[in-house]
């Protein structure tokens, strides 16, 4: 397997209850998991399973599928059985689909109680069915679909309104002895979202699912999510994350994994430390960094590779990495663990780095430990 490198978590994690989403533990000190949501019609079982396979390959740990129609509900059992990762059914309006999802063997069900009419009356039956099946429930409060009563009380979807809605809905389940819950309070504004999660974290011990809803197109959404999740995770808040992008879901997973790796909440696989380039650069750093990144894609060891544009700061940085290059005079000095092992012409830099990386990776796997 993978050599283990100790992670250096950014903060003590908030103490939360633990739930099991299939084989994936959420909360109670379990590693923060990355999830995403399919974009296919759930009733199209083949296409949905195909996308789930792609998400699994990209590192997604939990997948959510929408369930707006009876045809979608009918597809859940096959999808839940054939998916490689736990499947959560996402239910908005109809409690009958909540029961269908539990019966179908989904690993969890997400409900948006602000959207389910007469939800109060149905909670008892949902709690009983979920309890019997051992199916946890996410209470997913969304700014865009907040309970009308709370919207009127607070004037708009404030952090307080989102938290009040979530806690009220949790209390309905608690009345029936059901506590197998996780909670999200999503908003498209990271500031409101951060405040909402902070309040929620202080007010309960349920595991929390982080999300900035409707975060936007890829670039903006990536930044919003990174900033909001970064703020919360660095305070120890958050047990599972979903980055929402108007982009293919595998991209959401990639961003989610990078956020966790950046905070030391997950072991890095490959990390490219490349310089921003400056007037001293003697090589096209952007191109070189891209080529090295592409060449090392899929390498599954915790390798830190430095790509530096010149020999001024280059060697110093390259020395901190497992492997690195500092360019100058049409050549590249290749460093391994701080020692110059070779000097190669510029045209050979990429292939030499890939060779060396492969060699180091093999050695790491043999040793079973990282440097
Ligand atoms: Fe500039 Fe060299 Fe530093 Fe890159 S490594 S930013 S080229 S000084």
Automatic annotation (TrEMBL):
What range(s) does the IspG C-terminal domain occupy?
271-357
This molecule's function is given as:
Converts 2C-methyl-D-erythritol 2,4-cyclodiphosphate (ME-2,4cPP) into 1-hydroxy-2-methyl-2-(E)-butenyl 4-diphosphate.
Identification of the protein by name:
4-hydroxy-3-methylbut-2-en-1-yl diphosphate synthase (flavodoxin)
In short, the EC number is 1.17.7.3
The family note in this entry says: Belongs to the IspG family.
Asked whether the keyword 4Fe-4S is assigned, the reply is yes
TM region positions = none
Explain how, and how many, cofactor molecules are bound.
Answer: Binds 1 [4Fe-4S] cluster.
Q: Which gene encodes it?
A: ispG
Enzyme class (EC, first level):
oxidoreductase
Named cofactor requirement(s): [4Fe-4S] cluster
Q: Record's superkingdom?
A: Bacteria
| GO MF annotation: an example | 4-hydroxy-3-methylbut-2-en-1-yl diphosphate synthase activity (ferredoxin)
Q: Which Pfam families match?
A: GcpE (PF04551), GcpE_C (PF26540)
Please state the span of the N-terminal signal peptide per the UniProt entry: none
What residue stretches are annotated with the IspG TIM-barrel domain?
17-256
Q: In which pathway does it act?
A: Isoprenoid biosynthesis; isopentenyl diphosphate biosynthesis via DXP pathway; isopentenyl diphosphate from 1-deoxy-D-xylulose 5-phosphate: step 5/6
> Which residues does the record give as [4Fe-4S] cluster binding sites?
275, 278, 310, 317
């Amino acid at each position: 397997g993978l050599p283990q490198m100790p992670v250096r978590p950014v903060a003590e994690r908030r103490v939360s209850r633990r739930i099991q989403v299939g084989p994936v533990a959420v909360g109670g000190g379990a590693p923060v998991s990355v999830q995403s949501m399919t974009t296919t019609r759930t009733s199209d079982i083949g296409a949905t399973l195909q996308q789930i396979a792609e998400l699994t390959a990209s590192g997604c740990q939990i997948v959510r599928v929408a369930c707006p129609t009876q045809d979608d509900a009918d597809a859940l059992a096959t999808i839940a059985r054939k998916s490689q990762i736990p499947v959560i059914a996402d239910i908005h309006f109809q409690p009958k689909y909540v029961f269908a999802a539990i019966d179908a063997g989904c690993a969890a069900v997400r409900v948006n109680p602000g959207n389910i009419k007469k939800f109060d009356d149905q909670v008892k039956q949902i709690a009983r069915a979920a309890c019997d099946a051992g199916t946890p429930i996410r209470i997913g409060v969304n700014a865009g679909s907040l309970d009308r009563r709370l919207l009127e009380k607070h004037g708009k979807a404030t952090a307080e309104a989102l938290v009040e809605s979530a806690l009220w809905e949790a209390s309905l389940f608690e009345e029936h002895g059901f506590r197998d819950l996780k909670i999200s309070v999503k908003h498209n504004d990271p500031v409101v979202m951060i405040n909402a999660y902070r309040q929620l974290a202080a007010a309960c011990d349920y595991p929390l699912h982080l999300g900035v809803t409707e975060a936007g197109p890829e670039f903006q959404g990536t930044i919003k999510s990174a900033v909001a999740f970064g703020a919360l995770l660095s305070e120890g808040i958050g047990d599972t994350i979903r980055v929402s992008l108007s982009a293919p879901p595998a991209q959401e997973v990639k961003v989610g994994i990078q956020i966790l790796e950046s905070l030391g909440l997950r072991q890095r696989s490959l990390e490219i430390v490349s310089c921003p380039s400056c007037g001293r650069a003697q090589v096209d750093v952007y191109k070189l960094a891209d080529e090295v990144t592409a060449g090392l894609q899929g390498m599954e060891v915790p390798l830190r590779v430095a790509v530096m544009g010149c020999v001024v700061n280059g060697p110093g940085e390259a020395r901190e990495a497992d492997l690195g290059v500092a360019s100058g005079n049409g050549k590249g000095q290749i460093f391994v663990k701080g020692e110059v092992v070779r000097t190669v012409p510029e045209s050979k830099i990429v292939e030499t780095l890939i060779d060396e990386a492969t060699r180091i990776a093999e050695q790491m796997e043999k040793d079973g430990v990282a440097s």
